[in-house]
Design a protein that fits this description.
This protein has 477 residues and is of the alpha/beta class. It has 16 helices and 17 strands.
């Protein structure tokens, strides 16, 4: 048998047989037999698309505090814990509970900081958050968040994708897929990181089973904003454009033949990289920003200690240029030991930039249709974590039953506090809000019915909220 015949496959038969089945398939695709297949070959896959109803928000900035900030040191003041400090927590409270590192009967640890009320709303905040206190009337504080997972990786992935295991699309990917982007030369979904490693890893900005065009694109803090975007030495723009045109024509011919949507993704990736070569350096250059703006954020370009501040300013610049979803990850909140010292250090890193972002967006007329979210994957226990073997003392363990987040702009009712926990800060007792409820509400604000934003994969329709989730109407302006 000849070498040529050995390499023949069923695909070759359907492409080239005398009855022309390959060409029949192509004609079917062009007539709509494969929806959106060839449409994608000429249309931008992240072009803006219609929403289900009128949106309040057009874009999202999510400041994710990886490691889980202690709500008891920042947002949820519990005087009763002062009374019980050092005493075992009542057995009736902790019956049947599991924890990552401590015994359920560990002693109570009182909040480490004083709280005061702010603004006309009277929002009660720790003295670690003076800048947030100054904009208390612009934000909605949610004290009744709860989740299903008490270890970092699954909880972080769950908060970002609606599922605890890797492989599902991130929220930003769902939005890119569902309503596209207003950016022509920047990604729809951008990831900015500071503070260290992330337990959930790249699964938190994966496009999962959605087309790869909707994946989150990580930007770097220094050097080229995105790896492999700059040309190597001696390779000019004309040579690159000629190469891209040749590659594109080859890929488009293959797309028309085999109909693999990932070929469309490959074409889009090459073209986006080409456009970003000029857009990304200008985006990352803060020279056009005034000193007053840099000082407002505490931004210092090129200074790793100001990475979160720089990223907050960069997030504003990204949404100005049309990106749909900007995810800021800031690590370092996992305070199993010395929670007082740890919260103080991290609050100092994030309080001023986060508040500055709200102020800056409002001054520029962007807050009204930009949804801003701040929070982590779960909360921290009212009980102390102390382990001589692990070198830990005066810390707090993981607590999925109750934690706090805040939101602003984009259709959120400002100056309100939603939900409440019991006197120990242990369980939610008023207006419980699950992670799926948060996701449903975010999609609603963007004009999306969370039950209708679906993608068929392996025989069933998937969605960000899976089979759960309700819009939290008390959060809506």
């Amino acid at each position: 048998m000849s070498h040529h015949l050995k390499n023949l496959t069923r695909r070759h038969f359907f492409e080239n047989c005398g009855v022309g089945l390959g060409r029949i398939g192509l004609a079917s695709a062009m007539a709509g037999g494969f929806p959106n297949l060839l449409k994608g070959a000429v249309n931008n896959p992240i072009a803006p698309r219609d929403t289900h109803f009128g949106p309040k928000a057009k874009r999202v900035i999510f400041m994710f505090m990886a490691g889980a900030p202690s709500q008891l040191e920042l947002f949820d003041n519990k005087p009763k814990l002062q009374e019980l400090d050092g005493k075992p927590i009542p057995p009736s409270v902790i019956a049947g509970q599991r924890y990552a590192f401590i015994q359920p009967d560990a002693a109570v640890l009182a909040p480490r900081f004083p709280f005061t009320r702010h603004g006309e709303s009277g929002a009660e905040l720790s003295d670690r958050l003076p800048h947030l206190g100054s904009i208390a009337d612009e934000i909605a504080i949610v004290k009744s968040m709860h989740t299903d997972f008490f270890n970092h990786a699954p909880a972080q992935i769950f908060q970002n994708t609606g599922h605890p295991l890797p492989g599902r699309p991130a929220m930003g990917s769902w939005l890119s897929y569902g309503i596209g982007s207003d950016a022509d030369d920047l990604p729809s979904f951008v990831v900015l990181k500071s503070g260290g490693n992330l337990s959930g890893g790249a699964a938190m900005w994966s496009s999962g089973f959605l087309p790869g065009s909707h994946v989150g694109v990580p930007f770097r803090e220094s050097g080229d904003p995105i790896l492999h975007v700059s040309n190597p030495a001696g390779y000019d723009n004309k040579a690159q454009r000629d190469s891209l045109d040749l590659i594109r024509s080859t890929n488009e011919r293959e797309l028309g033949t085999v109909g693999d949507p990932e070929i469309r993704t490959r074409i889009d990736a090459y073209e986006m990289a080409w456009r970003m070569q000029s857009a990304a350096p200008e985006l990352m250059d803060f020279a056009s920003e005034s000193k007053a703006t840099l000082d407002l954020y505490g931004a210092k370009p090129g200074d790793g200690k100001a990475a979160f501040a720089n990223n907050c300013l960069l997030a504003r610049r990204l949404i100005e240029r049309g990106s749909r979803f900007v995810q800021l990850y800031h690590s370092g909140w996992d305070h199993h030991s010395q929670v007082e010292k740890g919260v103080t250090a991290q609050a100092r890193n994030v309080d001023q930039p986060a508040a500055a972002l709200i102020r800056d967006l409002k001054m520029r007329g962007l807050l009204e249709d930009t949804l801003v979210i701040w929070g982590g994957e779960f909360g921290r226990t009212p009980m102390v974590e102390a382990s001589a073997a692990l070198g830990r003392s005066m810390g707090r363990d993981h607590h999925p039953q109750a934690f706090t987040m805040w939101m602003a702009g984009g259709g959120i009712k400002p100056g309100v506090t939603i939900g409440a926990t019991d006197e120990l800060g242990f369980n939610v007792v008023e207006d419980p809000i699950h992670v799926h409820d948060l996701h449903a509400t975010i999609l609603h604000l963007l004009g999306i019915n969370h039950e209708r934003l679906t993608f068929r994969y392996q025989g069933r329709d998937f969605r960000l909220t899976d089979v759960h989730g309700h819009v939290v109407k008390d959060l809506l302006a």
